[in-house]
Design goal:
alpha/beta, Purple Acid Phosphatase, chain A, domain 2, 2 domains, six-stranded mixed sheet, 23 strands, 27% helix, globular
Length: 490
């Protein structure tokens, strides 16, 4: 493994000024290492950015965060800094999703990211688009546990690890991707890959990185704290000192088995600053301190603002077209949101008896005020189409129990019944409208096994929602609120 193209080096001061001449004496604590052999390394860590580059009421976006890094953290390109991401970088608001992540990668380039783990949402736009993003990025994409089924090797252009030299210390950065990725993105996208266990991947890669000169090991993993916790003991034995997590959008700083574990939350709401003091004579970490930071009140960085402005201008004018008006916000995980989307599907495709959507497919609120096409792209950012599956009532109920999806055309309250009150017939046949992610096995659904020849309607899953809202001609005088069904169905 070669060193990554971006290397940060500060010339070492002579070790001769240190009065401790024997390593064992220093390790015994009989002398305190002077500053000349203790190197400072600062890590700025984010995860699950999801394309939220623009400033909002809740945070300063990428420009505000970069401003904080410059002014509050003292970041400079040639300083002792590493900027790392735990993955899931781009699927989110329309400014990122519409451009299939290209805009977000350019923003991250401008912010100086040094490496990122590959998250499950990095696969959302297909392998070719992921390869395009990797080629565009000025930082490596890391995953030690994605392996080609045919060769057993790491896919081309993906690094299991890289070695960065920061302030004279060679640091091995190891990436891990969620082992649940085949269920969390469209499974057809990753059919050629195996996602091996974190433990197996780390045991092999850690020794390889050290054999190439890494003096300190850091893992950036698109994995939740519950998974990292089970990995910590083995990681400590492998020499890992820090694990950055992701995926579950947690905010945390914890110590376990001598390893520091961090996560920054999500959506550019904040970041974690990690200060490491490293003894270059004993090759050991003396101290690690962490600080959880909010992305608030930063002076927006003009360079990052300019990049975002360019992409905002490139958005098709029609995405800003107003299609409706809502008086009160439609919240992400509300019955109003669930029913709005799935009812619109059934209206557009009346051949179906029932519509189901996975809860993870909804990604943001509909704010109060004017509703634009851009708003709907933010709510449903993935490029999915609707699929008509045919299955019996027993299989339908089994799938609902398996994934607890959002439903339309039926209810699960007090039993499984159609909207008209007719109980689901276990042996009866039903046409069920789902998205192609679910049909391919996403989120663990087995619709493909139930109906491998399901009909792909080729209907973009956003289009029925856009059409239904447009047809209502809602205004401040007659807002969409008046037409929403807020009745719980499960």
């Amino acid at each position: 493994m070669k060193y990554w193209k971006k290397t940060i080096t500060i010339v070492s001061l002579s070790l001769l000024v240190w009065g401790c001449s024997a390593r064992k004496t220093c390790e015994a604590g009989l002398a305190t290492p002077p500053e000349s052999v203790v190197r400072k390394i600062v890590i700025l860590y984010t995860n699950d950015e999801h394309g939220w580059m623009e400033a909002s009421d809740s945070n300063g976006g990428a420009p505000g965060m970069m401003g904080l890094w410059r002014e509050q953290e003292g970041y400079t390109e040639d300083g002792p800094f590493l900027i790392l991401s735990g993955g899931d970088m781009w699927t989110g608001p329309v400014i990122s999703t519409w451009f299939e992540g290209e805009s977000m990668v350019e923003v991250m380039n401008a912010m100086g990211y040094d490496a990122a783990a590959i998250g499950n949402h990095e696969f959302d736009f297909g392998l070719n688009k992921l390869r395009d993003r990797i080629a565009q990025a000025e930082f490596p994409f890391l995953s030690a546990n994605i392996r080609e089924k045919k060769t057993g090797k790491t896919p081309e252009a993906v690094f299991p690890y890289v070695i960065e030299e920061v302030n004279g210390v060679k640091i091995g950065l190891i990436g891990l991707s969620s082992i649940d990725t085949p269920q969390l993105t469209n499974p057809t996208t990753v059919t050629e890959f195996n996602f091996i266990s974190y433990q197996e991947a780390l045991s092999k890669v850690a020794s390889a990185a050290k054999s190439e000169g890494a003096k300190m090991l850091i893992v950036i993993a698109h994995a939740c704290f519950s998974e990292i916790r089970s990995l910590a003991g083995m990681a400590a034995k492998s020499g890992v000192v820090l694990i950055g997590g992701g995926h579950c959008h947690e905010v945390l700083s914890s110590k376990l088995n001598g390893i520091t574990i961090i996560e920054s939350g999500s959506l550019m709401d904040g970041y974690v600053r990690v200060d490491i003091a490293f003894d270059t004579v004993t090759d050991t970490v003396i101290e690690i301190n962490t600080q959880l930071r909010e992305n608030r009140d930063g002076i927006p960085n003009q360079e990052v603002e300019a990049v975002i402005a360019t992409w905002r201008a490139r958005l098709d004018d029609r995405l800003d077209r107003v299609i409706g008006y809502v008086e009160q916000p439609i919240l992400l995980n509300s019955d109003a949101m669930f029913n709005l989307v799935t009812d619109a599907w059934l209206k557009a495709y009346p051949t179906a008896d029932v519509a189901l959507n996975n809860r993870g497919g909804f990604r943001q609120d509909i704010p109060a005020g004017e509703i634009t096409l851009s708003t709907i792209f933010g709510v449903l950012p993935f490029n999915n189409v609707l699929v008509d599956v045919e299955l019996n009532g027993a299989a339908l109920i089994e799938e609902i129990k398996r994934g607890q999806p959002v439903v339309a055309g039926m209810t699960t309250l007090g039993g499984y019944t159609l909207t008209d009150g007719t109980p689901i017939d276990l042996s009866g046949t039903y046409h069920v409208l789902i998205n192609d992610f679910m049909h391919a096995g996403g989120d663990g659904y087995t619709f493909q096994l139930q109906d491998p020849d399901a009909y792909n309607t080729a209907i973009d899953w956003r289009q029925p929602v856009i059409e239904w809202i447009s047809e209502l001609n809602s205004t401040p005088e007659d807002p969409l609120d008046n037409s929403l069904d807020i009745t719980p169905r499960q």
